[in-house]
Design brief:
The protein is built from 21 helices and eleven strands. By secondary structure, the protein is of the alpha+beta class. The chain folds into three domains: 151 residues; 108 residues, Butyryl-CoA Dehydrogenase, subunit A, domain 2 (Beta Barrel), CATH 2.40.110.20; 252 residues, Butyryl-CoA Dehydrogenase, subunit A, domain 3, CATH 1.20.140.10. Strands 3-5-9-7-6 form a five-stranded mixed β-barrel. Strands 1-2 form a two-stranded antiparallel sheet. It has a two-stranded antiparallel ribbon with strand order 10-11. Helix 10 packs parallel to helix 12. It holds the Pfam family Acyl-CoA_dh_1. Keywords: FAD, Flavoprotein, Oxidoreductase.
Amino acid sequence: MDKVSQATMTTGVINQAPPYCGYNLAESDPILLADLGGTGSNDSAREELIKFGEQCGAADALDLGRLANVNEPVLKTHDPYGRRLDVVEFHPSYHALMRRSFEAGLHSASVESMEPGGDRAFYNRARKYFVMSQVEGGHLCPVTMTNASAMALTQAPELAEVWNERILSRKYDQRFRPASQKMGVSLGMGMTEKQGGSDLRQIITRAEKVSDDTYVINGHKWFFSAPMCDAFLVLAKLEEGPTCFLVPRILESGEVNGLDFQRLKNKLGNKSNASSEVEFNNAVGFLVGEAGKGIKTILKMVTPTRVDCCIGSAALMRAAISRAVHHTSNRSAFGARLIEKPLMQRVLADMSLDMAASEALALKLAHCMDQEGEDSQAADFLRIITPAAKYWICKSAENVAAEAMECLGGNGYVEDHDMARIYREAPVNSIWEGSGNIMALDLLRAMHRTPDSFMNVLGMLEADLGPAGKVSVEVLQAAARTCLEDEGGARLLTEQLAITAAAAALKEVAPAAIANAFIETRMAGQWRSSYGMLDARYDAMGILEWLYPIK
């Protein structure tokens, strides 16, 4: 063998997939283009979505996601002379991602929904949020919180008038200066404390009134996300009880408000996003809502935040499986492409059923957000299904990410590819805004407080599912009766309800063969401990060809 041939054997690259990029992340997604309640294929929102999908699928956009996580944010507590500084420095890739998300309006739909022509603001935003989540999830934390904060600010009309105008701007402005001097703003939040966790009644941070609606706040927060936001919604105690305050990052005088950052959290994933611990040192805050009613005020943020968790986790699933489909379409073993192997087809298709149903359900929730003010059925669906959907979709993302990584073999396990980052990102949405037990308990509370809403939703699901609906609803009713006496059974009900709602949502946007495959394999009650359990009745390759562009 000559030297050239020997060199080719050791340095030439054969039987490896090309880099994953160049896909239009919107146009290649039939569920995203199904356009629930839309006006048809000429809808300008659809054209905007497709353009955004092309931008986000490009190599440069995907590389921004990598760079923002490799170059983590750094906290600078003091300047060289010992003065408090309390700033977080981000890599330029993070700012580039924020700029793209702001230009797309991912931070402002809650305000836009209140404006003329905003009747589809949440749904149109959700589709773009789904696309951007496949690029990078960490920077979307402050984007989500900014969008959700406007819902809480409705309890403080004078503050809302000022801040909503700032939120409406699609300009991302990273400069460290008072909000009134910036082209656009972002908002964060601070609720959790060391001793309290999800039980917000246990907070010890306190506020003291100094004039009218102005207070000074002292205490701490164990998790204080996106510390470079321009303002934060914070819970602190008054004599009346936990109360919500808007705390600016920098006062209008130019003085830095009393937010002393202790450290940034060293997280498993979500590396691009700065999550901090903070102490309040006479920080100035402004009352939002009624004194003592802070938890009720903050609950206005819960639904949009949880829906974003659903969208983001469904998008992570699509990102993971898309990379697995790309890899197996371009790699051969034992005489054929991996994707042509029956067992690989069934693994990919089985995962894809959960992904497709999760995406359909998440987008339906966003659609209901647009309708809830005028449609009681949409309001009931949102109230009952949101905690169940967050429970199931976010947990499914963890399993899908692991299985999709396995499809790439060793390449999936090294940091040179995206799969490791996707895998580390997957658990965050299960924890953020309420872990699994919190979701199950919230569902029980919703059932107790609004039993008519629960029954209305079951009626909707029965009608939407057709022949499978009656038996499914009977199973849910039995599980609900059990939970009335045994709170410990809440997870069983929560998962069954989520899967049933996901099946009904998938029927609205997918071919019958795909929806029926999900219904028959997920709702029949058999135990499924891993993916690849589809039998020969189902056209695995047909499922993949409908859901993904296979090269």
